[in-house]
Amino acid sequence: MEKIFRCLKVFLVLWAIPLGAATTYIYVTNNADTTISVIDAATNKVVQAIDDIEVSHAIDFSPDGSRLYITQEYEGIIRVLDRKTTKTIKIVPLSGRPNLLVVTPDGKRILVAIAENPPKAAVDIVDTTSLRVVKTIPMKGWMHDIYVTKDGKYAIAGSQGDHSVVVIDLQTDQPVWEVKLDNEVLTIAIESNPDGSARRLFVQLLHLNGFVVVDFAKRREVDLIIFPEDFPQFTPPASHGSGITPDGKTYIVLSVSGNSAFFYSLPELKLIGRVALPEVKLEGRPNMGAGPSWLTFSPDGQKVYISNRWTKPCTVSVIDVKNLKEVARIPVGERPQRMATLVVP
């Protein structure tokens, strides 16, 4: 009987341990030093600093989370790291200076925006098995960012030099259409239909304190949204960094001028509210904004992480999405640039 009770006790203990418990990490590229900060989303603490990464710009992951893919601007490479050991697996030379990169949903390819003027303006395609560039798609102007639709059918690339959004068919690896806009194209968020296809693109432009809306089916700009300015404004007049919550119900967009994160309901695009970001106090001079640059979400969409480039020390703000409130401010490396969320089983 005693043996039965012991077995039952062990069973109950094992039953109480959550199976498949996962850890969420927020990776932050620090563009002005040699580190990548890794934040544990459960504690909002930096738990790791990956060193010796010069001028890192963007980061993404293999679907199983075993590899880190990092663009390094001045070296013109992707550095591929083993996530657990942080040892370099391979350095992939690119056709030019890289900006954003994105891994396709099947994990087989990496698409890289090449931030060069023609004739080097391009999108590079890297095969993740051979870890080499297998195709370079010429572009008309300096490329800024690149994204992939949820259904994996198209890449959406933004051109600063050509003031355009370029749509690339990932079956043929050829541009199929583009939309010309009024200024240099910066970051883009893709609103999806239930089947994963693109519905609308929310596009940030240089010197625009707001964003434009592009209808994917109509292939044209259909709206222009300007942020409210009934609060202190900072220079430069700009907006950079945006994203849509995992449930698809909220679009969050950063204003450099307004030093704020603005929250819009979807699909209505109705302004829900604003969260002010930290101000930087300067002796003998007016305060300046935090320089918000990028954002990423916790997997449940309850928290959004925002990189603040100009605070001292540089920080990542953690915002409660439901209550529109900053709940933590995490010191990271110098000039945090892009961020990405990784869930590790």
Question: What does the model show?
Answer:
- The chain is mainly beta.
- It has a domain at 54-226: Methylamine Dehydrogenase, Chain H.
- It has a 4-stranded antiparallel sheet with strand order 3-2-1-28, with no helix packed on it. It has a 4-stranded antiparallel sheet with strand order 4-5-6-7, with no helix packed on it.
- 44% of the residues are buried.
- It has 1 helix and 28 strands.
- The model is unreliable at 1-19 (pLDDT under 50).
- It has one helix spanning 2-16, and strands at 23-30, 36-40, 45-50, 56-61, 67-72, 77-82, 88-93, 98-103, 109-114, 122-127, 132-138, 143-148, 154-159, 164-169, 174-180, 185-192, 198-205, 210-215, 220-226, 239-244, 250-255, 260-265, 270-276, 292-297, 303-308, 315-320, 325-331, 336-344.
- A hairpin with a 4-residue loop joins strand 18 and strand 19 (220-226).
- 4% of the residues lie in helices and 52% in strands.
